[in-house]
């Protein structure tokens, strides 16, 4: 059975490794399938103090700790990692471990194996609901993580701390903290969503439930949110593009909805802070929904120059829009991110490739340029270029951006209408009757105002 399970049918691909010397832990970041990720943790064996124990986990930690790295050490390290990936591939197939668990590679009973369990360093950092969120907000119901059934699914960009799960016969996205030092910060997204005084169709709603460690342990390890079957806007757009169905009309609709969602947040004196294709999903009606409201981190490929400069100059202590910034400074930065998001989406840039080549916080050159024959509609190219102006004062306001998009949308619709080929018969009929064909100048305005 295991032998027939090839890497092609159930791909698990090693992406990167992170070594924490203070605690002697190696974390392997692994792609399961179609941008679904999980982590594998490798730590020294409890009996590793014995000389000549020969535990593979010990050796992998040693290889990451050694400096400088030799060619033979690099080869040995890669072999151990590939062995771990093979073990994961055979044991889990296309599925990630249950929500709230990571994979450990360790020796048990003399056998090197992989096993899913909660991160023993994360669990002590978790707190009960009122300790995590306070007493002032109405909290959603509690659900133990054992009640969530993991589901293998593609079309979503699911990081290591997120899972597609089934609960009470319905599909949900389960999300939780990944690192012990960020546990309460990551869960602050729940508070941010509940605290919004109103709802918006293009902004994710409050969590369906809080996820606890167990039926008798109500420490919060995550939350449930709405699952959208069309998944991530990048993957959905790519699928439409491959079918020749990604229309400018739909791109304009998404652009307007994105601006409207950011304007809604601004009216309530808040912001998103990490606008990018990964943080947008598509509903069954092809509307977009903005997700991920932690508001603590940012991705450099879509972040404004002023935010990148601030983060890069902080030595890694700042990774997002500062909470003390006035909205007058925040909104131009959000407009820049809207422009970059639309650029990546319209141009069909694969975010997974961007992360592999540049990472999340590497300020590498990535210009917003449109080559001849660009798939981005010309009307959108001009607007995107304005949004990504280097100076904040040169970027349009959200109101101006919305008006420009609507004007460009109408202009494109009119141009498309007049560019339609006319059959000889219909042309002759119009000329003889001296009338314009019905509907030639009649446009139905999309319902984009909420």
Automatic annotation (TrEMBL):
Keyword list, A-Z: ATP-binding, Kinase, Nucleotide-binding, Transferase
Domain of life: Eukaryota
SUPFAM superfamilies membership: Protein kinase-like (PK-like)
SMART domains given in the database record: S_TKc
Species in which this protein is naturally found: Byssochlamys spectabilis
Annotated spans, Disordered: 412-438
An annotated Gene Ontology molecular function: protein serine/threonine kinase activity
Protein kinase domain span: 148-415
PROSITE patterns: PROTEIN_KINASE_DOM
The EC number(s) this enzyme carries: 2.7.11.1
Enzyme class: transferase
Protein name according to UniProt: non-specific serine/threonine protein kinase
């Amino acid at each position: 059975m295991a032998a027939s399970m090839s890497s092609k049918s159930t791909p698990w691909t090693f992406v990167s490794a992170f070594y924490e010397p203070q605690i002697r832990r190696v974390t392997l970041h692994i792609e399961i399938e179609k941008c679904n990720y999980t982590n594998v943790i490798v730590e020294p064996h409890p009996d590793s103090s014995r000389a000549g124990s020969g535990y593979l986990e010990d050796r992998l930690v040693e290889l990451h700790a050694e400096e400088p790295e030799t060619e033979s050490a690099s080869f040995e390290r890669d072999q151990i990692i590939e062995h771990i990936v093979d073990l994961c591939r055979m044991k889990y197939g296309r599925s990630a471990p249950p929500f709230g668990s990571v994979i450990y590679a360790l020796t048990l009973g003399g056998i090197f194996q992989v096993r899913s369990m909660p991160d023993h360093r994360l669990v002590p950092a978790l707190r009960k609901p009122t300790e995590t969120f306070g007493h002032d907000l109405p909290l959603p119901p509690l659900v133990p993580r054992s009640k969530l059934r993991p589901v293998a699914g593609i079309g979503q960009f699911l990081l290591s701390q997120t899972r597609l799960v089934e609960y009470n016969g319905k599909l949900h996205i389960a999300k939780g903290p990944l690192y012990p030092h960020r546990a309460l910060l990551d869960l602050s997204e729940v508070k941010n969503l509940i605290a919004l005084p109103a709802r918006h169709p293009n902004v994710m709603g409050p969590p369906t439930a809080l996820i606890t460690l167990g039926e008798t342990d109500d420490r919060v390890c995550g939350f449930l949110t709405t699952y959208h079957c069309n998944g991530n806007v990048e993957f959905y757009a790519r699928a439409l593009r491959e079918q020749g169905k990604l229309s400018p009309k739909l791109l304009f609709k998404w652009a307007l909805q994105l601006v409207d969602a950011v304007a809604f947040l601004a009216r309530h004196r808040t912001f998103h802070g990490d606008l990018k294709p990964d943080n947008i999903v598509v509903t069954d009606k092809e509307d977009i929904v903005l997700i991920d409201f932690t508001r603590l981190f940012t991705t450099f490929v879509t972040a404004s120059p002023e935010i990148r400069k601030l983060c890069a100059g902080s030595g890694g202590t700042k990774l997002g829009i500062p909470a003390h910034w006035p909205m007058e400074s925040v909104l131009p930065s959000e407009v820049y991110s809207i422009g970059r998001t639309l650029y990546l989406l319209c141009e069909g840039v694969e975010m997974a490739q961007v992360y592999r080549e540049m990472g999340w916080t590497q300020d590498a050159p990535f210009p917003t340029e449109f080559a001849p024959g660009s798939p981005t509609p010309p009307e959108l190219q001009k607007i995107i270029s304005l949004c990504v102006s280097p100076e904040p004062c040169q970027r349009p306001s959200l109101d101006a951006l919305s008006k420009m998009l609507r004007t460009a949308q109408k202009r494109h619709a009119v141009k498309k209408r007049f560019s339609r080929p006319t059959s000889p018969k219909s042309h002759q009929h119009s000329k003889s009757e001296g009338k314009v064909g019905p509907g030639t100048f009649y446009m139905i305005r999309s319902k984009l105002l909420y």
